[in-house]
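Our consortium's second objective concerns turning raw sequence data into structural hypotheses that experimental partners can test. To show how far this objective has progressed, the report includes one record in full. It was chosen at random from the queue rather than selected for favorable results. The single chain below, 45 residues long, was entered without modification.
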Amino acid sequence: MDILFLLVPVSVLLVFIILGVLAWAIHRGQFEDLEREGARIFEND
């Protein structure tokens, strides 16, 4: 039972870190044009 006092705050902190990284990626425009980047691998050089 004592381990829950460690695991619950650590998991909440991990969720906030993941949400922060996701918000940072959205703000920086990482998800703007997914179709073009997916089609780029099929282009012949």
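The partners drew two points from this record. The longest helix spans residues 4-27. DSSP finds two helices and no strands in the chain. Both points have been shared with the crystallography group to help prioritize constructs.
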